[in-house]
Write a structure and sequence with these properties.
The complex is a heterodimer. Chain A is an all-alpha fold. Chain A is built from 12 helices and no strands. By secondary structure, chain B is of the alpha/beta class. The longest helix of chain B has 14 residues. Classes of the chains: A mainly alpha, B alpha/beta. The interface between A and B is medium-sized, with 22 and 27 residues.
Chain lengths: 302, 278
């Protein structure tokens, strides 16, 4: 070994500099791509709103940009999205939270270690599979109970979407519940509480912001989900809250126009950017809210 | 039962090596009696057969070096020990005419009569000061309104009323560490237990907060049976009527506190309290 003391002024090795530069480039790239997407979205949206006034976009109740009688009211698409997302949450919230409570409070450690990855596999099933599952299995099944249910409707894809996002909700809620310190659990038990009351009065309230964050991320996934609704919900932008009839979500509309023969650069084509921007703003808002709640959980628990 | 290896070739004082209990507490005056109480964590035996009588209305201190089983011991008394995965108990603990390890005994009901305060203050973070004190009500699912008088009485008993009476609606976690611990004591007292178990309640607190907790233990004496685990021998000497010295999962000596600290019967006790080991 070299006996000299390390030279404080020796320059850092060249490889190290190259590697850190390369890593920085990768990081910068992802930021640049995001910025690029937002810019395209922004400019095309501005282009759209030059021709269609904001008031029409937000106050008209019909969405018919591809017809002769053009209307550009976003509400039918928002209603479609809200409807499918609502059914998704009806499934995902109770199922997700019950699974989370079971996994973190009742399942033995070994079962928990098996079930959590299985749950995450469920989240990895391609959504197109869920789409056909909704169209060819769930819809006919539901038609047995609800004869007026159309072949395309918002109920069936909404419920299937709920199954799809249940693992996300369950997994994030489970993290939140699991992170509640054992000392609080013991404190409740030592006061003569049974486990259910300890969960209800101490553990769930303590984990509340994390659980709420999981719901909101679930909603945000439901709003952005495309394949299931494009396949099974129909393509009819109707302003309705009837779960039995065909509707169209924002995402499904974007698919319809992107795959159709709408010429590039036309007003019809630009509608998808306006809808996309709307979608972006909504999911961004939900994601920021979820982020805020999760931060609050981390601070609150300790 | 295993015997304890002598530490450094000392001979035991006195002739009766098997005798551990020098308190003279009789069955009739005891609120808790343990018989051959053993406890395990997985394959590790943390308590190796403890027989002890706890005097009703007195303050009993449990001392001993780290890992001697003193915390495990009090956690067997309200059946909190078994909540730890892999933990097991054998032997008997008699309380209120019942062996609490009898399968017919409901541990939830037991814990309503034997309260506990933990090493680190653990107020419920989403509850106000007031809700923390009264947390036993929703947690036990008891109906009716045990309202403001329980709140004030418990907080006064815990010597916290004057400090928090104006901030009852603030979060419990906004109090200082010492106040939080007294809040947890108030919370335990609010369910009116017959016995209060305290597991090193001052180990996370500064000397002033510690003194306040010791004062409050003094003021509770007589009304409620207190069993306090402590690392701090001066504290045991200050607050307790009886002291039990545990070592390696066994009860070595159990005696009135004065005698134990002034003229212990066992060499090992003397070695520990004079700081020769531990």
């Amino acid at each position: 070994m070299d006996n000299r003391k390390p030279d404080l002024l020796q320059s850092r090795s060249l490889t190290e500099r190259w590697i850190s530069a390369a890593l920085f480039a990768c990081a910068a790239m992802s930021v640049a791509v995001t910025a690029g997407i937002i810019m395209v979205l922004f400019f095309e949206t501005v282009e759209f709103f030059r021709q269609v006034p904001l008031s029409e976009f937000f106050f008209d109740t019909q969405w018919t940009p591809l017809f002769d009688q053009k209307h550009f009211g976003i509400w039918p698409l928002i209603a479609g999205t809200a409807l499918t997302s609502f059914f998704a949450m009806i499934v995902a919230v109770p199922m997700g939270i019950l699974i989370a409570i079971f996994l973190s409070e009742f399942a033995p450690e070994r079962l928990r270690r098996i079930l959590k990855p299985v749950l995450e596999v469920l989240a990895g099933v391609p959504t197109v599979v869920y789409g056909y599952f909704a169209l060819t299995f769930v819809t006919p099944l539901l038609q047995g109970f609800i004869p007026e249910l159309a072949g395309f409707n918002s109920l069936s894809p909404g419920l299937v979407m709920g199954i799809m996002i249940t693992p996300i909700v369950a997994s994030l809620s489970e993290d939140a519940i699991y992170s509640v310190p054992a000392s609080l659990r013991e404190g409740a038990i030592a006061l003569g509480s049974n486990r259910l009351r300890a969960i209800r009065h101490v553990i769930l309230p303590t984990a509340f912001s994390g659980i709420a964050a999981s719901f909101i991320l679930g909603i945000s996934r439901a709003i952005g989900e495309t394949m299931i609704v494009a396949i099974a919900a129909g393509q009819q932008p109707v302003l309705t809250l009837d779960p039995r009839v065909p509707i169209e979500t924002m995402t499904a509309y974007i698919v319809q126009v992107s795959l159709g023969d709408t010429p590039h650069g036309t007003l019809e084509y630009n509608t998808i950017f306006a809808v996309g921007a709307m979608l972006f703003v909504m999911t961004l808002a939900f994601n920021l809210l979820a982020l805020y709640l999760r931060r609050k959980l981390l601070k609150g628990a300790l | 039962m295993e015997t304890i290896e002598p530490i450094s070739g000392h001979k035991e004082k006195g002739g009766d090596e098997d005798r551990r209990d020098y308190t003279g507490i009789r069955d009739g005056a005891a609120v808790i009696k343990t018989v051959a109480l053993r406890a395990w964590f997985g394959s590790l035996m943390a308590l190796k057969g403890v027989d002890i009588l706890i005097a009703a209305g007195a303050v009993t201190a449990i001392i001993g070096p780290s890992g001697c089983g003193k915390s495990t011991f009090i956690r067997t008394l309200n059946r909190m020990h078994e909540g730890v995965p892999g933990a097991r108990v054998s032997g008997s603990v008699y309380f209120a005419g019942q062996d609490i390890y009898d399968p017919k005994v409901n541990p939830v009901m037991l814990r309503r009569r034997i309260g506990m305060v933990f090493q680190k203050p653990n107020p419920f973070p989403m509850m106000s000061v007031k809700d923390n004190v009264l947390a036993g009500i929703p947690l036990q699912g008891t109906r009716g309104s045990a309202g403001d008088d329980v709140l004030e009485r418990s907080l006064r008993q815990a010597a916290l009323w004057d400090e928090v009476k104006d901030v009852l609606d603030k979060p419990g976690t906004s109090l200082s560490g010492g106040q939080q611990q007294r809040l947890c004591i108030a919370r335990a007292l609010a369910i009116e237990p017959e016995i209060l178990l305290m597991d090193e309640p001052c180990s996370a607190l500064d000397p002033i907060a510690t003194a306040k907790i010791e004062d409050l233990i003094h003021s509770l004496r007589g009304g409620i049976t207190i069993i306090i685990v402590t690392h701090n021998m001066q504290q045991a000497a200050r607050v307790s009527d009886y002291t039990a010295f545990f070592y390696m999962g066994e009860l070595v000596e159990y005696c009135d506190t004065d005698t134990l600290f002034k003229s212990p019967h066992k060499t090992r006790t003397e070695d520990y309290i004079t700081g020769r080991f531990g």
